[in-house]
Each structure stands twice: as C-alpha cells, then as structure tokens.
Amino acid sequence: MTLPVFLSEAVTTAGPGAEVVLDGDEGRHAATVKRIHAGEQVVLVDGAGTSAVCAVLDAGKASLRLRVESLSHVVRALPLVTVVQAIPKGDRGELAVEVLTEIDVDRIVPWAAARSVAVWRGERAAKSLAKWRATAREAAKQARRAWLPEVAELATTADVSALLAEADLAVVLHEDAATALADLALDGVESVVVVVGPEGGITPDELEAFASARVVRLGSSVLRTSTAGVAAVAALLSRTPRWR
Questions:
Q1: Rounded CA gap, 111 and 195, in Å?
Q2: Which 8-state DSSP code applies to residue 4?
Q3: Whole-number Å distance between alpha carbons of 225 and 229
Q4: Which residues on adjacent β-strands are paired with residue 54?
C-alpha cells in the first residue's frame, strides 16, 4: 500500500524514534480530510530532500502526533532543470506547473513575456503566484517527491536573460528553429534552463535578449505553451542519469 505524503519541516532535524507533530494546513488535511487514525503510517517530507516514514500515535481534530520510524535523504540529482514559463491564459499555468513538478523539474520561473495574454499585476500577481506555488506543493506530494520545486518570483525578460547566461545549457523553444533539441549534447551539463514562450510567440527583441541560449525546436508540430516545456524537459531528462 502506498503511504500518504505530507509536508513538514519537523523531520529536517528529527531522528529515528523522535516524536513530531503535523499541524497547520497539512495536519488538518491529514486528520479531517484523509481521516488518518492512530496506528497508521504516513510519510513526511521536508521539501529539501528528507523523507521520513512515521507511525501515527494520536490523531486530533486538526493534527497528528507521530513517531519517526525511518529516515532517508535524497541528494538532488544533476542536471538541475529550470523552466521559464511564459504566463499562459486561464488555468493553463497551473496545468504546466503541475506536470512540470510531476516530471521532476527543479525550478519554475513565471515570465511576463511581451505577448503573454494574461498579465500579472498587483493583487492578481500575488494571488496567481500563490496558486502556482500551491499547485507545485500538491503535485510534489502526489509524485512523492522529497524535493519541492522552487516557484520563483515573476521574471522580466532581463531576468530571464541573466538566468540563461548562468546555465551550462540554455535553450529557447521556437517552432522555426533550425536545430532540434534532440541534437544537443548533454555531456558534462549540470544546469539546464528551458524557455517556453507565450501563445503569441516570442518576439524578435526577446530572441535578441536571449542570444546566449540555443534556439531549438521539438519536432514538426507546434505544442501549446502549457505542454511544450513538459515535452522538452522529458526529452532532455530521458538522456540523463536522472531517468535511468
């Protein structure tokens, strides 16, 4: 049976045999929604590589008291993968975040591209970013990830250009590119940044700003902005030790 997973920083410093409390939103969800009782087992992860199998000693109305039975720590695997996701319209942003998290992306950066239909400003920006981060947390638990992906603050084109300059391999997805993503060498690459444009495409000025990156295509078909990043990262990870 697959044990339910919850997020808790309490296991970061706990050892086998230690008692910890799962409270807050996670404890409330475990106790009232999942209806977990004393005698059952759960997995607690801290989002930074530590995972603990715990026995439930007591279940309250909005919390669990647990004993740590075993601990493990997952070292973050290379290459580290960042996806710069242009803000899509509607709920397609959450869809992209959900599936990118499931396939083990390390960082997701929302990008205010020139042709993005949706615009994040003021209160809407804060709410949208919070929704992306909540989506990543829930998807990480569903995927049983020990490491939570970082969902960064909203980036400008200048911010994205700086990220690309720092990466071992930086790619911009574009349907008219002459180079195929599959042709890129990955030997010795420890960090990858993939830029996914908006529904209206990446502008010439943005391509010029991203001059340090390789402009590549995935195939003969044009994917939606919410799925292009997933396809690109899957194609890359399948050629690395992370997926072997």
A1: 9
A2: P
A3: 7
A4: 42, 68
Which one, of 220, 227, 177, 158, lies nearest residue 199 by Cα? 227
Q: Which tokens hold the place of 88?
A: 């899509």
Maximal CA-CA distance, the chain:
61
Helix 225-237 × helix 92-102 angle, to 10°: 10
Q: pLDDT at residue 50 above 90?
A: yes
How much is the CA Rg of the chain, to the nearest whole Å? 20
Query: Which domains are seen in the chain, by residue range?
Result: 5-73 (2.40.240.20), 80-243 (3.40.1280.10)
Percent of the chain topping pLDDT 90: 93
Q: Give me the pLDDT at residue 1, please.
A: 67
Q: How far apart are CA 144 and CA 14, in angstroms?
A: 20
Of 125, 111, 130, 131, nearest in space to 203 by CA: 111
Cβ density class 191-227: b for 16+ within 10 Å, e for less: bbbbbbbbbebbeeebbebbeebebbbbeeeebebbe
Rounded CA separation 212/160 (Å)? 11
